[in-house]
Amino acid sequence: MAPIDPHSYTDSTHPLTTHISLSFYFDFPSSTIHSAAVLSLSAPHSGPFTLDLRSLSISAVVDPATLAPLPFTFHPASPDAVLGQSITVALSNHSQLLVVFKTSPSSSALQWLTPPQTFNKSFPFVYTQCQAIHARSIFPCQDTPAARIRYSAKLNVPRYLSAVMAARHVTRRDPLPGECGGACDDSLWCGEDRIVEEFVMEQPVPPYLFAFAVGELGFRELGPRTKIYSEAVPAVLDAAAREFAGTEEMIKVGEALFGPYEWERFDLLVLPPSFPYGGMENPRMTFLTPTVIKGDASGAQVVAHELAHSWTGNLITNKTNDHFWLNEGFTTYAERRIVEAVQGIERAVLNIGIGWKGLVEEMERFKDNMEFTKLKTNQQGVDPDDVYSQVPYEKGFQFLWRIERQIGRPAFDEFLKKYIATFKFQSIDTDMFLDFLKPNVPGIEDHIDLKVWTEGTGIPSDAMEPVSEIYTKILALANEFKAGRMPNEDEVAEWGGQEWELYLENLPKSVEASQVSALDDRYRLSESKDYEVKVAFLHLAISSRCSNYYNEVEKTLKEVGRMKYLRPLYTALVQGTGKEEEKIFAKRVFSEACACYHPIAQGVVESILAKYM
After folding, report:
1. Which among 304, 362, 298 is positioned nearest to 338, based on CA atoms?
2. Separation of alpha carbons 184 and 438, rounded Å
3. DSSP character for 441?
C-alpha cells in the first residue's frame, strides 16, 4: 500500500473516485441516516480497492449492474483514533460499486439537534461539518483532498422540514419506489410524511466540502447570486440580511481581483450556535456561526474569508492537510484584499494586526512542538483538529504579503490570477506552488528564503507587523494599561469591535483583578454583543483570577460552540498551577454543556482537559 495522504487509507495505486450518487433517508428519532452510495471510478479496477470510513455500519457492497455481492474486509479491526477504519473491497474489472450502510449517532461530522436545542424549539435539525477528515463518518470515500469528486444526492426528509446542500438544488418532490438503492425499504422511503430533496454538484470538490443541513429553514434574498438561510426565525433572518447586505459587492470585488466566480451561487446558511467554526466555505452554500451577526456589518469579514475560499481552497485545494496553508494563507490574503476594497485600508490593517497577535501567541502554544509552526508540516499520526491553529492562516498570509512587498502589488495581482487560472479544480502541494512561483517571479529566491518560509519553524525575520495610525495608537493604549492607565472615553469613542479586540489581545496576560473590574465597570465589555470582544475580556478575567466573572464565562461556554471561543476559555481555566477550583469548574461546565457542542468541538475540549487535568 502506498498512501497519498497521512490522514487517509487511500492507496496511490488505486483509481480515484470521480462521482458518488447518494441516497439518504434521515431518521431523526435514532439520529441516523440509512444510506446507499454508488461510487464511480476513474478507470475499471481489478484487485483490492480501499475507502475510508468511521462509525459506519456497512450492510452490503455489491456490483450495481448485477447486484452480485463484492467481498470486503475492514482494517484495523479496532478503529484508529485518528483515521477510523478502511474498507477494502475486492473488485474484478469494476468501474462502479454500490455500498449500503447506515451512519452512527456518534458520527463525527454530524450534529443532531433536538427541538429544545434550536432557535424555534419546535423541530429537530441536523447539519454537517466534514473538514478536516470527517466526510468518512457520513459515507465511505477516499477522504483526502487529493481525490476530487462530483456527486448527486437524494435526501429523504420529513415533509415538514427542508434541506439545503453545498450543491445545486434540482427539485423537491414526492419519493419514488425503487429509487433508494437499498438504503431502506420502499415502505419507509415512500411514506406519506416524507419528501425528497434532490441536489447535484457538477464541479469536482474535495470530500471535506460535502455539506448539508436539514431543519425548519427560511431565507431572505440578498442579491442576484445570494440568499441567506437560517432556521425560520424572522429576527435571525432579518439581522443576518442586514449584516451581510454587501455580499454581492464583495463577490464583484473578488472577481476583479481573482478572476471569474466559478460556482454560480454564493448562498449563506446561519447555523445554530453550536456550529464549531466561524464559517465553513462549502461551495455554493457557506455555513456561518450566528456569532458573526454583530449588528454593525463587521461580521461580513468572515463572509469575505469564506467567499475568498471560492478561489483559494475550493478552486485550488491543498493536496493534504500537511499543506493547509495553501488553503488558508492564500484565503486570508484574499480576504484582506476584499476587506480593503470594500471597508477600507484601516479595517484591513486592524484585521492584519489581530492576526499578527494571534500568530505570536501560537508560537507560545507550540513552543514544545515547533513542527506545527511550519507552513509545510508533517502530520503523520496527528489529528488535524488537535493542531488546528492560526499558523497556516497568518504565517501563510505573511509569506504572500512578503512576496507582494518584494515584487509590488500589480505584479503580484497578475501572478495570483495566473496561479488560480493554472491550477483551478486541482489539488496541489507546497512544492508545486514553489515550482510555479520561481519561473513566474524570476529571481524571487534571491530576495526571499523560500525554504525558511515554508519549512522553517517560528516567524521569519522578514515577516512584518502592520503599520497604521490607529493600530499604533491602540497598542500604545494597551501598553499604558500595564502602568495602570485606562483609555479615556473620548479615545475610544469611535471604536468598534475590532478595535476593542485588538486592545484586549495586547493587554498583559495577567493584571490585577481590580484593573479588570474597573475596565469593565467603565466599558461593559463582559456584556458585549460582539463575542470577539466578550471572549477576549473573559479570557483576561480568567488569567487575572477575577472569579466574579466566572458566571459570565459559564454562560458563554453554554451558549456558543465555536471552537475559537471554547479553546482559549477552557485552556485559560485549566492551564497552569494552583488552578484546582478552576479545573473543577471547567469540568462541571463541560459536562453540562458538551451535549450542545458539535462532536469536533467536544473532542477538542476533551483533549484540552486531558492535557492539563
Report:
1. 304
2. 54
3. S
Count Cα neighbours of 383 within 13 Å in the Cβ-side half-sphere. 12
Question: For the purposes of burial, counting CB atoms within 10 Å of the CB of 383, is it exposed (0-12), middle (13-18) or buried (19 or more)?
Answer: middle
The whole-angstrom separation of Cα 254 and Cα 93 is: 45
Cell numbers that stand for 263 in this block? 460556482
d(CA 351, CA 348): 5
Strand partners, 22: 37, 153
* Cα 217 to chain centroid, rounded: 21
- How many beta carbons lie within 10 A of that of residue 112, not counting itself? 19
* Annotation says 505 is catalytic: no
Strands 56-62, 84-103: pairing is: antiparallel
**Is 262 labeled as catalytic in the residue annotation?**
no
Point out the catalytic residue in the list 9, 393, 549, 565.
393
* β-bridge pairing 279-280 and 217-223: unpaired
User: Exactly one of 216, 231, 306, 340 is catalytic; which is it?
Assistant: 306
Cβ atoms of 121 and 23 closer than 8 Å: no
208/211 Cα distance (integer angstroms): 8
CA distance 184 to 186: 6
* H/E stretch holding 212: strand 212-215
Chain mean position to CA 438: 31
Contacts of 40 by beta carbon, 8 Å cutoff, 6+ apart = 17, 18, 19, 20, 21, 95, 96
- The secondary structure of 391-412 as a DSSP string is IIIIIHHHHHHHHHHHH-HHHH
Residues 6+ apart with CB under 8 A from 312: 258, 326, 327, 330, 331, 334, 420
Cell of 387: 493542531
Q: pTM for the full model?
A: 0.94
Tens digits of residue pLDDT in 114-159: 998 888 889 999 999 999 999 999 999 999 999 999 999 999 999 9
Cis peptide before 493 (omega within 30 of 0): no
The pLDDT score that the predictor gives to residue 1 is 63
